[in-house]
């Protein structure tokens, strides 16, 4: 694959936190070459909907996902995309010590980038071992964050480019 446009999301919690994904996220999914979802879908119907609109889907399950979702997507998924070894997992533990824990847990997999979720808090750091850690936040449940969010980035020629955190407008009921 040449350059790949990627959208990353996690913690969608549909229908628990919203009836559907926000329109801006659906638009990004429709334009992406690859969609990465870091778990907590909450319903298999959401897996189906995202898969139907994705050119390619790389996904895992989260701690809030029922058995039918867990049967469809693994705890950890990996892929080689445009020369980048990409992984997705839901939970990486507390923020304190995350970089070292991720090196210990995922270093042997040879990953370049790990997308994770669970906290609903956007995150972008690099571990001492060189693994880039990205959390897209949540598009439906901002918790203590200023906005609901998702990420886009490009993978090309073995490198990660143009990482952008997208803040979503507040929903009005």
Automatic annotation (TrEMBL):
It is an enzyme of class 3 (hydrolase). Residues 6-157 form the Calcineurin-like phosphoesterase domain. Transmembrane segments: none annotated. Its EC number is 3.1.4.-. Keywords: Metal-binding. The keyword ATP-binding does not apply. Gene3D superfamilies: 3.60.21.10. Its cofactor is a divalent metal cation. It comes from the Bacteria. GO terms for molecular function: hydrolase activity; metal ion binding. Belongs to the metallophosphoesterase superfamily. YfcE family. This is Phosphoesterase. It comes from Cellulomonas biazotea.
């Amino acid at each position: 694959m040449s350059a790949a446009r990627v959208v990353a999301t996690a913690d969608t919690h549909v229908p628990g936190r919203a009836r559907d994904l926000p329109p801006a996220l659906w638009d990004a999914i429709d334009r992406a070459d690859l969609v990465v979802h870091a778990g907590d879908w909450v319903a298999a119907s959401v897996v189906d909907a995202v898969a139907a609109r994705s050119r390619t889907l790389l996904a895992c399950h989260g701690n809030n996902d029922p058995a039918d979702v867990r049967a469809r997507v693994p705890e950890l998924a990996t892929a080689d995309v445009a020369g980048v070894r990409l992984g997705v997992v839901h939970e990486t533990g507390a923020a304190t010590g995350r970089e070292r824990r991720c090196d210990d847990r995922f270093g042997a997999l040879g990953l370049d980038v790990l997308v994770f979720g669970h906290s609903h808090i956007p995150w972008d750091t690099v571990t001492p071992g060189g693994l880039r850690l990205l959390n897209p936040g949540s598009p439906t449940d901002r918790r203590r964050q200023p906005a609901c969010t998702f990420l886009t980035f490009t993978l090309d020629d073995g490198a990660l480019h143009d990482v952008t955190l997208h803040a979503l407008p507040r929903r009005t009921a």
